[in-house]
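thought: user wants a sequence for this fold. calling inverse folding tool.
action: design(structure=
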């Protein structure tokens, strides 16, 4: 009834009545009913908190995100959210199921008064029947996720891929298995290795081309003069072709100039160079010499007189090529060699037309046997039968999509259209990766990042103090950015370790790698100037101490050196006279400095003590405000500007509003260590620093002096 009313309102053009809640300093829409989701197309997108989010790197079911991401670009955008809600809502009798987040979808909740609804319902029943749950009244995400089990008992499943057992004919099964082995398997929906229509067409195309290529050689005697032995002969011919050509070229050069014959056979120096080496027939030093002794118009010996490094290959060449083509010869003339080369020219030209056919591994005989049989038509028929169930299989995928949307869509829109989970803290938002425990604090606003430097370039605009950590769990690694929104940053530094708990409760070792400094609290800003002054004083004292130590070391070294020179020279040295005027000047300078400081302190103290009693606290407060006020004002302004948007935008989101993290909310996001309520606490510390009473004495003396002075000035009698 609710759905009918909603549809009638929409068809009548009645605007949906929206409800908003305020959080993060801006208005966010409440999405609590199916009607709210079905009317998302009416909500001005300027009111959406986000317009895009990535499908990875967030804490959400990847399958659901992929089903919504219809263009497969790795991002979910507003039109895809609207399309998913419209599609799912149109298939349900009551769209309120989309916001209930249940793992199961009752079958009677699917509409049976529309063609699409009946198709989805029938497919859901088919899935349950295949899973052995024919009597089940509801279908779950786990049911639709196991597609292998769903299609395990079916011969055809609509994916256009056929396994070997798709046919009852053993010969066809054998051909399918051979084609899968030859061209590679493609898994079908049942999980079995199968043959696709494209692979089947590829096989028969290659098989015909391969068979036709061999037929060309069979029809031309010049291509295969040695018949089936031609391949072995060609291999033996190619092994020695260049070396034999080199030999006859050298012989022609010797005929041109007889003086060159000796050099062309190798010089005496060449043989001397190898004479002392351990030689073998396979030695490269021997292989570079001519194939045989070079001479004018000399025939090439095939047995005796052949270079030992080439003897084996020449014997193979003689047996495979020379004997079949020239007879049983022991030498080969240049004319006979030219004839042999010519008889291989047609074979080499034919071989050059060969392509890289995968079917060649099956052998020509088996390829022609498959081509001659009825197998091509049989495979095409099986593939056609499988593809005929494509619509039914697609409906199974749609059932999977509907079940996922019923479970997850409500949570997604409340982390996309609004940030309800984040700002109401009912649950963790989908962009929150877990909780980081470090420096006595727990940080709940942690996002996973892939590149800390790239993320920080944009995230720094958020005005949030971000700590980047490298997290390791066994062999797994990841990076996170954690927002510190309470406490201070005094002990946050690169290299410190903590523990990160992801959304599954798994613990990771976390090490700080980078920090983006921003104010964390006004309290930190108040004490910051004093800490800086203290740090500066400490650094100056350290520098002064180091300088004095260096001067003492230099003086000691100088004294030792002077003493050594005195001993070596054998001459007495006269000690430098004490310069009274010099030291008097130093003491005078020190006295002036101390006097100036004392005068300034006295003037300040006199002015302070000259105030009335009620004015003194105000003066102290005013002094503290002068020192800490600017830092506190600057921190307050920056804390008011803290914005979640840049942190998410740096991760691929498109945040559509200024999602503020104000001081109270920020304090809630970072927990500070506190003793449990009702816990007992012992203040006795056996290792506490020992206290000295001089501070108390100094305070009491100062107080007495102040009281006496005030009495002398008549403050108490005024």
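)
observation: tool returned 718 residues.
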């Amino acid at each position: 009834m609710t759905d009918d009313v909603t549809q009638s309102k929409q068809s009548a053009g009645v605007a949906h009545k929206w409800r908003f809640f305020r959080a993060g300093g801006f208005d966010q829409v409440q999405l609590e009913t199916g009607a709210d989701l079905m009317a998302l197309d009416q909500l001005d997108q300027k009111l959406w908190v986000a317009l895009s989010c990535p499908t990875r790197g967030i804490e959400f079911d990847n399958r659901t995100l992929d089903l919504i991401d219809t263009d497969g670009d790795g991002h979910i955008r507003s039109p895809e959210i609207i399309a998913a809600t419209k599609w799912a809502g149109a298939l349900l009798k009551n769209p309120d199921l989309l916001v209930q987040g249940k793992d199961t979808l009752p079958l009677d909740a699917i509409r049976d008064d529309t063609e699409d609804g009946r198709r989805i319902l029938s497919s859901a029943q088919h899935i349950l029947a295949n899973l052995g749950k024919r009597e089940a009244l509801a279908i779950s995400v786990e049911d639709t996720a196991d597609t292998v089990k769903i299609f395990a008992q079916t011969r055809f499943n609509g994916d256009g891929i056929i396994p070997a057992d798709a046919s009852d004919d053993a010969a066809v099964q054998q051909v399918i298995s051979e084609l899968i082995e030859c061209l590679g398997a493609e898994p079908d929906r049942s999980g079995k290795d199968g043959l696709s229509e494209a692979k089947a067409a590829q096989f028969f195309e290659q098989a015909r081309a391969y068979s036709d290529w061999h037929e060309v050689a069979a029809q031309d005697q010049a291509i295969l003069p040695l018949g089936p032995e031609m391949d072995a002969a060609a291999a033996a011919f190619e092994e020695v072709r260049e070396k034999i050509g080199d030999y006859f070229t050298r012989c022609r050069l010797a005929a041109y100039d007889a003086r060159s014959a000796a050099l062309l056979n190798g010089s005496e120096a060449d043989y001397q160079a190898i004479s002392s080496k351990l030689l073998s027939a396979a030695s490269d030093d021997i292989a570079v010499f001519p194939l045989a002794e070079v001479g004018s118009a000399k025939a090439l010996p095939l047995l005796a007189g052949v270079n030992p490094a080439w003897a084996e290959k020449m014997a193979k060449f003689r047996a495979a090529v020379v004997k079949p083509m020239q007879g049983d010869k022991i030498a080969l003339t240049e004319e006979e060699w030219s004839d042999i080369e010519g008889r291989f020219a047609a074979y080499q030209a034919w071989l050059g037309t060969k392509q890289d056919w995968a079917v060649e591994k099956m052998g020509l005989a088996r390829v022609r046997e498959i081509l001659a049989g009825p197998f091509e038509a049989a495979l095409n028929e099986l593939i056609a039968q499988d593809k005929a169930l494509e619509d039914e299989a697609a409906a199974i995928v749609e059932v999977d999509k509907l079940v996922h949307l019923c479970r997850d869509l409500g949570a997604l829109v409340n982390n996309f259209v609004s940030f309800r989970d984040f700002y109401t803290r009912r649950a963790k938002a989908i962009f929150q990766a877990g909780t980081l425990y470090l420096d006595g604090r727990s940080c709940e606003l942690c996002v996973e990042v892939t590149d800390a430097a790239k993320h920080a370039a944009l995230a720094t605009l958020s005005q949030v103090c971000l700590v980047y950590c490298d997290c390791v769990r066994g062999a797994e690694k990841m990076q996170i950015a954690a927002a510190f929104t309470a406490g201070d940053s005094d002990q946050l530094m690169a290299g410190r370790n903590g523990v990160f708990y992801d959304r599954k409760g798994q613990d990771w070792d976390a090490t700080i790698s980078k920090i983006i400094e921003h104010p964390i609290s006004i309290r930190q800003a108040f004490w910051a100037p004093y800490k800086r002054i203290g740090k500066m004083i400490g650094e100056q004292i350290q520098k002064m101490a180091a300088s004095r130590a260096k001067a003492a070391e230099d003086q000691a070294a100088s004294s030792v050196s002077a003493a050594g020179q005195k001993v070596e020279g054998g001459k007495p040295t006269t000690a430098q006279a004490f310069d009274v005027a010099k030291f008097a000047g130093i003491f005078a300078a020190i006295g002036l400095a101390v006097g100036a400081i004392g005068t300034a302190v006295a003037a300040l103290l006199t002015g302070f003590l000259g105030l009335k009693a009620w004015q003194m606290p105000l003066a102290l407060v005013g002094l503290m405000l002068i020192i800490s006020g600017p830092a506190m004002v600057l921190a307050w302004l920056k804390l008011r500007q803290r914005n979640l948007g840049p942190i998410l935008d740096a991760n691929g989101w498109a945040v559509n509003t200024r999602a503020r993290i104000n001081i109270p909310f920020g304090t809630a996001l970072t927990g500070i260590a506190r003793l449990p309520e009702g816990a007992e606490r012992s203040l006795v510390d056996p290792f506490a620093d020992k206290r000295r009473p001089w501070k108390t004495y100094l305070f009491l003396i100062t107080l007495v002096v102040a009281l006496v002075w005030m009495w002398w000035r008549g403050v108490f009698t005024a």
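thought: summarizing for user.
answer: Here is the designed sequence. Residues 160-388 form one domain.
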